[in-house]
C-alpha cells in the first residue's frame, strides 16, 4: 500500500513538470500583458514599458520560466501582479472557501444522491424512480448559472430565507482561525457564526451540486440494479438471509464501487462549476479568483493556482484508487 | 501436427463467424431495444424538432431577428420591457428585437456550436485515444512509451478545470463563434481520448483479436478492421451526451462574457446571458432561451442515455 | 402591451419555488438583518481596494474607502465640483502659479494623536517626491506622476521630469509648495485623494518599508495592506481588513476635527463584484447601500422603497475615431457623416440612468470651460448619407471595437450601446465589422495603440478642470486618435501653462469649439452612475465625482 502511494507520487513529478512548461508557454501566449490590466483607462505606452521592464517581462520566455522554476524550488510562488501579495497568501485566503463550497456540494450529492438512487433502483418503475431519473436528467441539462440565478431569486430575494451571497453576514462576530468559516465557529465556540456560514453555503452548494447530484443518483441506480440481478444476491435472498443483511452487505457494498469512482471524478470537475457558482454568489473562492487572474494576465497567480489545482486533482484520484481497496478486497490483492 | 493447424483454422472460422453474427446482432438488438425505449423516443422527437427549426428557422421567422424594429418601445434604463403580445409572440428583447425570430434563427447557431465543437472534440480525442490505445495494445515497448506520453498529456488537460481551459482559449483567440466552438470542443478531447483508449484495450484482449493475431493477421488490419470499429460504441454514445454538454458550456462561456458576440448571429447561450441582467424586470427574456437550451440538451441526453442502456444489456434485465 | 413588471418575475419565481424543494433549512432569518448592530452601516462596493495608503491608489474603489479616513488639503463641495477648503482653510498662489500657499485648519488631530502642522504637510510631499525603486512604478504612483511629474532621482527613462521643487513651512499652520512650471493641474490636483495627508508618526514608522522584496515584482508595501497602519485625519479610522471576505471595517473617530461628525459607529465596505448580487444583497437587507446600480434596476428599487439619489454628471462617453488606421476617416465629411448618423438621444432615453444627457463636446457641462457655441451634429441619416456620397465613401467598411464584460460609470452596458450605434451606422450604408474584446487588457491595448477604426471609450474627471479631460486626449499626437492638428495641440499647450483660472476657462471654450469643428471623435453622452440606499438610512449627499462622505450617513 505504502509502496503504491510512493510510486504514484513519484510518477506525478514528470506530469506536473510538463504541465508547468505547457502552462507557462500557454498563459504567456495570452494577448496583451498585465501592464494594461493594471493601468486601465489611465495607461499609456511609457507606463506599459516601465511596468514590463520592472516585471522582467521583456526578457526571453525561457529566462522567465527558469526564474519562476528556481523560485518554485525554493517553495516561493512569487507575488500576484494585480494585488502585489504573495501568491501563496492569496491562495490560502481563498482555498478554504472553495473547499467548503465543494464539500457542501459533495455532501448534498452523496447524502441525497445515494439513497435516492438506491431506492429508485429497488422500486424500479415507481413514481420515485421516474422522478429521480427525470429529475437527474433535467439537473444535468440546466446551466449552472441559470440555476444559481433562480435559486437566489427565490430563496434570497423573494422568500428571504437565505442570504443572497457572500460567506458570512457582515458584522457577525467570527474569529478567523483556519479560514474555514464553519469550522472556525465550532473551534472558537461561536456557534452562531458557524450556523451563519452554513446558511451562506446552502444556495451555492445546491447550485454547484446539481450536476454531481444527478450523476450520483444515476450511477447509484444503475449500479444497484446491476448488483440486484447478480446471482449471489439471489442466492443470499433465497438462503433466507435477513433483508437488511442482504442489502447492507451484498447489495450496497458492491454497488458502491462505481459510485466512489464517480464521486472522485465529479470532485475533480467541481472546480469548473465553482467558477460559475462563486461568481453568481460572490463567494470569494479560488474559482472566481482564477477567472479574474486570466483576464488580468496575472501570470504568477495563474501558474501557482493551476499547479496547485492539478496537484489536488491528482491527489483526489489517488485517494479514489485507495478507497477502492477498502471497499473491494480484490483490488487490494492486485 | 495437422490437427493443430486444423484446430486454429477452426477457431479462427468460429470467432470470425461469431464476430459477424454477434457483432451484427448486437447492433440490431440494440437498435430494436432503442426503438422500444420511451426515453429514446422522446429524445429523438425533441432532437428532430430542434433540427427542423434549425434548418427552416430563418424562413419561418416573422421578423428580422437583428433589426431593432421596436427599439423606441423598450427602456432598459427604466426597466420597461415589452412582453409577449400579438405582434411579437415571445415579446421583445432589450434592444427592441423580436424574441421569437431570434429564438428561431438562434436554433441554427446553437446547433452549429454543439455539432461543430463535438465533432472537433470527437475527432481530436479519437485520434489521440486511438493512437494511444493501439500503441499500448500492439506497439510493444515503444508503443507503451508513446501511450504513456499521450496519456500524461491527457491527464494534464483533465487536471485543468475544463471551464478555465475554455476561458483561457477564448482569451488567446479573441471572441468569435469559431472561438466558442474550439474552446468547447477542446474541453471534450480528454474524455473522448480516454474513453476510446479504454474501450480499445478491452477489445484488444477479446478472443477474436487474440485469434486473429495468432493467425498472423497484420496488426494494422486488426486495429483498423476489428478493434477500432468494435470500440466505437461507447464513444458514439458519449458524443450524443457531449452535444448536450457543448450547448450548456457554450452558454456558460457567454455568461462569463466570452460567448459569440456577433449580434448578426443570435444564439441561445448569448441570449440567456444577456437576459440575465434583466431577470427581475423581464423574466420572459431569460426563460425562452433557457428553456430552449434545457429542452434541447435534454433531448440529446435522453437519446444518449437510451443508447447507452441499449448497448449495455445488463442495465435492462 | 407595455409591461413593467417585477410582479410577474415574482409570480414565476414563486411558482418555481413551490415546484422545487420544501426546504428543510427554512429556519427564520431575522428580518431586520443589519448585522446584529443597528449602528453598523454596510456598503456594497464593486471591487476590492488595492491598498489602504491612498498615495498608492489610482482607482475609485480604493479611494472610496480611504477617503473616509484620510483628508486632502482641498476638497470638493458636497454634491458639487467646486473646490472648497479641506485641511487647508485658505489657499493662494503667486502670479506665475508656481508657489502654492496653504493656510491649515487649526486643531486637527490625526488618529494617533499627532497634530497637523505645515511641517507635516511638507513631510508628506517630500516623501512622495523622494520615492525610489518600485514606488516609481506608474502602478504605485500614478497620480503623483500625473500631477507633479517625476521624482528627486528618476530611475527610468520613461518617468517624466519632476515638476515639484520643494515645500516649506514658514509657520505652524502654513505650508508653501513650489513647482517648476505652472499647470492646469493646480490647484485641482491638491484635492486628489492620493495627496491626502498622513500622520508624521506613520511616515516614520513605514519609511523603510520597501514596496518590493524582489526586484521583479510589483508588490504593495506591507503597511498598505494592513488595517490601521496609517493614521489620517478623517472621520473614520480603518480597523480591519478581512481580505477573505473582501470587507474593510472602519470605526468612528471620536476626536474628528470637522463639523460633520460620523453618524454611525462602524462603517463596512463589502466587496460584491457582481451587479445583480449587489442589488439582491440590498433587497435581502444584507447591505445598506451600493454603488453602480444597473440602470434597469433603478425603477424596481424605487418601487420597493429604496432610495436612489441621482448624482450630477462628471464623465463623458465618446465614439473614438482612429484616423491613421482607415484613410477614409481622415476626411472631415466622413466623420461628420458618422456624427449625423448616430442617434445619441435614443441611447440617453433608453440606456442611460436618470440624469444622463447627450454630450455636445468632450467635457460635461459641469466643468468650467464648457462652451455653448460648439458646432452640433443632429441625428440626420439622410444628411449622413449625402455627406458619405460627397466624400465618395458610400461603401465604407469600419471595424468597430467594443468592450465586453465590463460596466463603466459612463457606460452601463457597452455591448448594448454598441448594438444601437451599429444599427445607426448600418442604416446609412456603412458596413460594420464587429470586434468585441475583453476590457482588460485586450480592449485597452487595441484602442490605445490605434488598432481600431472606431471604438467606445470614456473618462471620469478627477477634479473640476477641463484639462483633466481635454489634455488627456488632445495635447499632442496620440495613436488612439491618429491625427495632427496644430491648432488644437497649441491651444491645449497654452492652456496647460496658463496660471490664471479665468483665462484658462476662455481658452478651454475656444479649444472645445475647435475640437468640435475638427470632430476627432463623437462625444456621445454624460451619465451619472447610480447609487442606492435602503429606506431606513439617511444617505450621504451624492457627488458627481463619486466622492461621497460617509460621515453624513446615519440610521433613521
UniProtKB/TrEMBL annotation, chain A:
GO terms for biological process: transmembrane transport. InterPro entries: BPD_transp_1_N, MetI-like, MetI-like_sf. Coiled coil: none annotated. GO terms for cellular component: plasma membrane. Its main location: membrane. It is a multi-pass membrane protein. It is found in: Cell membrane. The keyword Repeat does not apply. The chain crosses the membrane at residues 9-27, 101-121, 133-155, 197-217, 255-281, 301-327. Residues 95-324 form the ABC transmembrane type-1 domain. PANTHER family: DIPEPTIDE TRANSPORT SYSTEM PERMEASE PROTEIN DPPB-RELATED. Belongs to the binding-protein-dependent transport system permease family. This is ABC transporter permease. It comes from Streptomyces triticirhizae.
TrEMBL record, chain B:
InterPro entries: BP-dependent_transpt_permease, MetI-like, MetI-like_sf, OppC_N. GO terms for cellular component: plasma membrane. SUPFAM superfamilies: MetI-like. Pfam families: BPD_transp_1, OppC_N. The chain crosses the membrane at residues 40-61, 111-138, 150-171, 177-196, 227-248, 284-304. One of its GO terms (biological process) is transmembrane transport. Its main location: membrane. Keywords: Cell membrane, Membrane, Transmembrane, Transmembrane helix, Transport. Residues 107-304 form the ABC transmembrane type-1 domain. Signal peptide: none annotated. It is found in: Cell membrane. It comes from the Bacteria. It is a multi-pass membrane protein. PROSITE patterns: ABC_TM1. Belongs to the binding-protein-dependent transport system permease family. PANTHER family: D,D-DIPEPTIDE TRANSPORT SYSTEM PERMEASE PROTEIN DDPC-RELATED, OLIGOPEPTIDE TRANSPORT SYSTEM PERMEASE PROTEIN APPC. This is ABC transporter permease. It comes from Streptomyces triticirhizae.
TrEMBL record, chain C:
PROSITE patterns: PROKAR_LIPOPROTEIN. It comes from the Bacteria. Residues 82-478 form the Solute-binding protein family domain. InterPro entries: Peptide/Ni-bd, SBP_5, SBP_5_dom. Residues 1-26 form the signal peptide. Keywords: Signal, Transport. GO terms for cellular component: ATP-binding cassette (ABC) transporter complex; periplasmic space. CDD domains: PBP2_DppA_like. SUPFAM superfamilies: Periplasmic binding protein-like II. One of its GO terms (biological process) is peptide transport. One of its GO terms (molecular function) is peptide transmembrane transporter activity. Pfam families: SBP_bac_5 (PF00496). Belongs to the bacterial solute-binding protein 5 family. This is ABC transporter substrate-binding protein. The lineage of its organism: Bacteria, Bacillati, Actinomycetota, Actinomycetes, Kitasatosporales.
Amino acid at each position: 500500500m505504502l509502496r503504491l502511494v510512493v510510486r504514484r507520487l513519484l510518477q506525478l513529478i514528470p506530469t506536473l513538470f510538463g504541465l508547468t512548461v505547457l502552462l507557462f508557454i500557454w498563459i504567456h501566449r495570452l494577448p496583451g500583458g498585465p501592464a494594461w490590466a493594471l493601468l486601465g483607462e489611465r495607461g499609456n505606452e511609457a507606463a506599459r514599458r516601465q511596468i514590463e521592464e520592472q516585471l522582467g517581462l521583456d526578457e526571453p520566455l525561457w529566462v522567465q520560466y527558469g526564474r519562476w522554476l528556481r523560485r518554485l524550488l525554493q517553495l516561493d510562488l512569487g507575488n500576484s501582479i494585480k494585488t502585489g501579495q504573495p501568491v501563496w497568501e492569496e491562495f490560502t485566503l481563498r482555498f478554504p472557501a472553495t473547499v467548503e463550497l465543494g464539500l457542501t456540494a459533495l455532501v448534498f450529492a452523496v447524502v441525497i444522491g445515494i439513497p435516492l438512487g438506491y431506492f429508485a433502483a429497488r422500486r424500479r418503475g415507481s413514481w420515485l424512480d421516474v422522478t429521480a431519473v427525470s429529475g437527474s436528467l433535467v439537473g444535468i441539462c440546466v446551466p449552472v448559472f441559470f440555476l444559481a440565478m433562480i435559486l437566489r431569486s427565490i430563496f434570497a430575494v423573494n422568500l428571504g430565507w437565505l442570504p443572497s451571497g457572500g460567506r458570512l453576514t457582515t458584522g457577525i462576530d467570527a474569529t478567523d482561525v483556519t479560514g474555514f468559516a464553519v469550522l472556525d465557529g465550532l473551534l472558537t465556540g461561536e456557534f452562531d457564526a458557524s450556523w451563519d456560514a452554513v446558511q451562506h453555503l446552502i444556495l451555492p452548494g445546491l447550485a454547484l451540486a446539481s450536476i454531481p447530484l444527478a450523476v450520483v443518483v444515476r450511477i447509484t441506480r444503475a449500479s444497484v440494479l446491476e448488483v440486484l440481478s447478480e446471482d449471489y444476491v439471489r442466492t443470499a435472498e433465497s438462503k433466507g438471509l435477513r433483508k437488511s443483511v442482504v442489502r447492507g452487505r451484498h447489495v450496497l457494498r458492491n454497488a458502491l464501487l462505481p459510485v466512489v469512482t464517480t464521486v472522485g471524478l465529479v470532485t475533480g470537475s467541481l472546480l469548473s462549476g465553482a467558477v460559475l457558482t462563486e461568481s453568481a454568489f460572490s463567494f470569494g473562492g479560488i474559482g472566481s479568483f482564477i477567472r479574474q487572474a486570466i483576464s488580468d494576465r496575472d501570470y504568477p497567480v495563474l501558474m501557482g493556482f493551476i499547479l496547485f489545482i492539478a496537484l489536488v486533482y491528482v491527489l483526489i484520484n489517488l485517494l479514489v484508487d485507495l478507497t477502492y481497496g477498502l471497499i473491494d478486497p480484490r483490488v487490494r490483492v492486485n | 501436427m495437422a490437427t493443430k493447424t486444423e484446430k486454429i483454422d477452426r477457431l479462427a472460422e468460429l470467432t470470425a463467424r461469431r464476430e459477424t453474427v454477434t457483432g451484427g446482432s448486437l447492433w440490431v438488438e440494440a437498435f430494436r431495444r432503442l426503438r422500444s425505449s420511451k426515453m429514446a423516443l422522446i429524445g429523438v422527437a425533441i432532437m428532430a424538432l430542434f433540427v427542423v427549426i434549425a434548418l427552416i428557422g430563418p424562413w419561418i421567422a416573422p421578423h428580422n431577428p437583428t433589426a431593432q424594429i421596436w427599439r423606441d418601445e423598450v427602456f432598459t434604463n427604466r426597466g420597461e420591457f415589452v412582453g409577449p403580445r400579438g405582434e411579437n409572440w415571445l415579446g421583445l428583447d432589450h434592444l427592441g428585437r423580436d424574441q421569437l425570430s431570434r429564438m428561431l434563427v438562434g436554433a441554427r447557431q446553437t446547433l452549429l456550436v454543439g455539432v461543430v465543437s463535438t465533432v472537433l472534440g470527437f475527432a481530436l480525442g479519437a485520434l489521440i485515444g486511438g493512437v494511444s490505445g493501439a500503441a499500448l495494445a500492439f506497439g510493444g515497448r515503444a508503443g507503451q512509451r508513446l501511450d504513456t506520453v499521450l496519456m500524461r498529456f491527457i491527464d494534464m488537460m483533465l487536471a485543468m478545470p475544463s471551464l478555465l481551459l475554455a476561458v483561457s482559449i477564448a482569451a488567446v483567440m479573441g471572441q468569435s463563434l469559431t472561438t466558442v466552438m474550439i474552446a468547447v470542443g477542446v474541453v471534450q478531447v480528454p474524455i473522448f481520448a480516454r474513453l476510446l483508449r479504454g474501450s480499445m484495450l478491452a477489445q484488444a484482449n477479446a478472443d477474436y483479436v487474440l485469434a486473429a493475431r495468432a493467425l498472423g493477421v497484420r496488426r494494422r488490419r486488426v486495429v483498423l478492421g476489428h478493434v477500432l470499429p468494435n470500440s466505437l460504441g461507447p464513444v458514439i454514445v458519449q458524443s450524443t451526451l457531449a452535444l448536450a454538454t457543448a450547448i450548456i458550456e457554450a452558454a456558460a462561456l457567454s455568461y462569463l462574457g466570452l460567448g459569440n458576440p456577433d449580434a448578426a448571429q443570435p444564439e441561445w447561450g448569448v441570449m440567456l446571458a444577456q437576459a440575465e441582467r434583466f431577470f427581475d424586470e423581464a423574466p420572459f427574456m431569460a426563460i425562452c432561451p433557457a428553456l430552449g437550451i434545457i429542452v434541447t440538451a435534454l433531448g440529446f441526453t435522453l437519446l444518449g442515455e437510451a443508447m447507452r442502456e441499449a448497448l449495455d444489456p445488463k442495465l435492462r434485465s | 402591451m407595455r409591461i413593467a413588471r417585477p410582479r410577474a418575475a415574482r409570480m414565476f419565481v414563486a411558482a418555481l419555488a413551490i415546484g422545487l424543494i420544501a426546504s428543510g433549512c427554512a429556519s427564520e432569518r431575522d428580518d431586520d438583518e443589519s448585522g446584529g448592530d443597528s449602528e453598523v452601516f454596510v456598503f456594497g462596493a464593486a471591487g476590492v481596494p488595492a491598498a489602504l495608503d491612498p498615495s498608492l491608489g489610482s482607482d475609485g474603489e480604493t479611494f472610496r474607502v480611504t477617503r473616509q479616513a484620510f483628508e486632502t488639503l482641498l476638497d470638493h463641495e458636497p454634491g458639487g465640483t467646486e473646490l472648497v477648503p479641506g485641511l487647508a482653510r485658505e489657499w493662494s498662489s503667486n502670479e506665475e502659479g508656481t508657489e502654492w500657499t496653504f493656510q491649515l485648519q487649526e486643531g486637527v488631530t490625526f488618529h494617533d494623536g499627532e497634530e497637523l502642522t505645515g511641517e507635516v504637510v511638507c513631510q508628506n510631499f517630500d516623501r512622495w517626491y523622494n520615492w525610489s525603486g518600485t514606488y516609481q512604478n506608474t502602478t504605485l504612483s500614478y497620480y503623483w506622476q500625473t500631477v507633479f511629474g517625476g521624482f528627486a532621482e528618476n530611475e527610468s527613462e520613461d518617468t517624466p521630469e519632476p515638476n515639484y521643487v520643494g515645500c516649506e513651512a514658514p509657520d505652524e499652520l502654513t505650508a508653501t509648495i513650489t513647482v517648476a512650471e505652472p499647470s492646469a493641474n493646480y490647484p485641482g490636483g491638491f484635492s486628489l485623494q492620493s495627496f491626502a495627508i498622513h500622520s508624521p508618526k506613520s511616515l516614520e514608522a513605514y519609511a523603510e518599508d520597501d514596496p518590493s522584496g524582489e526586484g521583479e515584482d510589483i508588490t504593495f508595501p506591507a503597511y498598505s495592506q494592513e488595517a490601521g497602519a496609517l493614521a489620517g485625519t478623517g472621520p473614520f479610522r480603518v480597523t480591519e481588513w478581512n481580505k477573505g471576505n473582501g470587507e474593510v471595517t472602519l470605526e468612528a473617530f471620536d476626536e474628528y476635527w470637522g463639523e460633520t461628525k460620523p453618524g454611525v459607529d462602524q462603517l463596512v465596505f463589502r466587496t460584491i463584484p457582481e451587479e445583480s448580487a449587489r442589488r439582491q444583497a440590498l433587497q435581502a437587507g444584507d447591505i445598506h447601500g451600493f454603488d453602480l446600480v444597473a440602470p434597469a434596476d433603478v425603477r424596481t428599487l424605487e418601487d420597493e422603497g429604496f432610495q436612489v439619489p441621482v448624482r450630477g454628471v462628471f464623465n463623458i462617453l465618446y465614439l473614438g475615431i482612429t484616423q491613421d488606421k482607415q484613410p477614409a476617416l481622415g476626411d472631415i465629411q466622413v466623420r461628420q457623416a458618422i456624427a449625423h448618423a448616430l442617434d445619441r438621444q435614443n441611447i440617453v432615453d433608453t440606456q442611460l440612468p436618470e440624469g444622463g444627457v447627450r454630450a455636445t463636446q468632450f467635457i460635461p457641462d459641469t466643468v468650467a470651460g464648457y462652451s455653448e457655441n460648439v458646432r452640433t451634429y443632429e441625428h440626420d441619416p439622410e444628411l449622413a448619407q449625402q455627406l458619405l456620397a460627397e466624400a465618395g465613401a458610400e461603401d465604407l467598411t469600419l471595424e468597430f471595437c467594443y468592450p465586453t464584460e465590463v460596466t463603466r460609470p459612463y457606460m452601463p452596458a457597452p455591448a448594448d450601446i454598441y448594438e444601437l450605434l451599429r444599427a445607426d451606422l448600418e442604416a446609412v450604408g456603412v458596413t460594420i465589422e464587429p470586434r468585441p474584446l475583453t476590457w482588460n487588457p485586450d480592449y485597452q491595448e487595441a484602442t490605445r495603440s490605434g488598432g481600431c477604426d472606431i471604438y467606445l471609450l470614456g473618462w471620469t474627471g478627477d477634479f473640476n478642470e477641463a484639462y483633466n479631460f481635454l489634455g488627456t486626449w488632445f495635447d499632442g499626437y496620440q495613436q488612439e486618435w491618429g491625427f495632427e492638428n496644430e491648432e488644437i495641440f497649441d491651444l491645449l499647450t497654452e492652456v496647460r501653462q496658463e496660471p490664471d483660472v479665468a483665462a484658462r476657462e476662455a481658452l478651454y471654450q475656444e479649444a472645445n469649439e475647435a475640437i468640435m469643428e475638427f470632430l476627432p471623435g463623437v462625444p456621445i453622452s454624460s451619465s451619472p452612475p447610480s447609487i442606492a440606499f435602503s429606506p431606513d438610512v439617511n444617505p450621504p449627499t451624492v457627488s458627481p465625482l463619486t466622492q461621497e462622505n460617509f460621515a453624513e450617513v446615519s440610521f433613521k
